[in-house]
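Appendix B, Record 12. Input sequence as logged:
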Amino acid sequence: MTKKLCLLTFAFFAFMICKVGAQDDTWETAKITDEMTVDSDQNKKWRMGQSSFSAKPKNAWEAGIILGHFQVNGDVPSDLPSGYGIGLHIRKAINYVLSWRAEGFYTSTVGLDGRLSNPNVLNLDNKATDLSSSTYRNFKSTSITGGLSAIVNVGNLLFHSPRNKWNAYLGVGLGVTSTTVKMDYLNGTTPYDWSSIESQHSENTRQKRNDIRAMLDGDYETVADNDRNVASFLNDNGQIFPSFIGTVGVSRKINKRINISLEQQLIAQDYDKWDGHEYRSTFDQTNDSDIAAFTSLRLGINLGNFDNVTEPLYWLNPLDATYNDIAELKQRPVLDLTDADGDGIIDMLDQELDTPAGCPVDTRGIVLDSDGDGLADCKDKEPFSAPGYDTDEMGVAIIPDPGYMTEKDVTDVINSKMGAMETTLNEIKSGCGEWFLPMIHFDLDKYYIKPEFYGQLHHVGEILQRCPNVCVSVVGHTDPRSGNDYNRVLSYNRANAAIEYLTSKYGVSRDRLKLMYGGEEQPLVDSSARGSSESKNYMNRRVEFRVCQDSDTDMARPEGPNAGKGETGKTGSQYSGNKNSGY
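Logged structural output:
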């Protein structure tokens, strides 16, 4: 009944706990914030390149339920199965390799020797027995063991994946065992009569032992003596003794919360009567102490809130951060100094890739139109036309004959221009005039904000905070890979991620930002040709910022499938910032 209850209890807990769903990053790179480490300042410095080492993550405790087979290997043999054990453990990682584990378990086991033993030998084993006839040695041992072990993990140092599914480990520890050993030698108050068994069986077979068990009344009435002639432990008359615990096991991870382990433990001590017997004959004792073997199945449960702690460190790959930093460096575009139109602005930064030869351009590579009359300076016969007048097709201002202007007309023109100039000067002084805002770029099929662009977003956020009347359009784009429906949704996700960052980090009102997207239709550089370099595709995977134009509108999410991966699908490091920008 007790065994069935143990099995049902273990099965119930396993069923209830396994209903917990797997976390999003169960098999991917762990998401670890600064606050989830033991030294958040050190971790921030590491992300900014000011420290060589990241801080140790805060990690969960593991609680475990133990159920298994328990057997004593001594003078009296045991058939399988011979006993059971049930218990609990708690484990905490010290680092990625070493952890400590405290455990306690209750065990019960029985044994039976199918060979008749001389009563003189049995009376030496247990002096109070005073048997007068031969009998079959047997015992029932119940024990409670508590121990503390050091566990060495050997399964989480990985070179080709961020997480492991299997873990192997070894352990050594010390414990204390309290045991009670009894024998069933009397049928009531008299010794058993085994003549019928001896007449039926000449060999020590399983059937013979089964027949012996059938005759036993199951009342283990004879308590084993303690006559080791050594000092008792804790003044307990020899029922409590120190133990050595050796462990080897393998674990299988189910999800971030749960793992299952198969484990073998050997429990050894200076005690030769765990099976109730130590003499082989009336002249000598057995040479070795009894050893117990505990084969158990363990259900491990990681405790805590995964928003505040990680899994135990023995489930994390210590090389993960290093590998992700290397991968991120490889994804950064190679500087390409190609300037196809020869305007002095390299193609990676040029917003007008087909500038006519000889035409001066601004810092973005766009042809200059100094007087704003819609005609490039290189084609304008009057590049600096008088302001306020219409121009002809050659860019020359059409100025009325002065004879037709009255003094009032001249005054009105001057006042109008002075007012416009004053407005422009005020905008420039306040820092809220026309701005060329930066852009940010994204990894392939991703829309999370890369840490190296926190600096650019900081500049945009500062402008929005300083200039409460400025409206900014946030325009998302992709490279030409994948279908256009997919790319339109992905470019929407990228623009939306940038807006969420600005509103959450800088307190900017959402209605001051207009979300727009262009999918793959507005490339910054031409990357459509087969064999185009990854750097060109990288430049096209972008979000641009500009002061709102009259034609800009806030665009809704386009129709199409879910596209890209955000923070939960990130494969690169979330924390390796740009030390040059201070983020």
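The mean pLDDT is 81.
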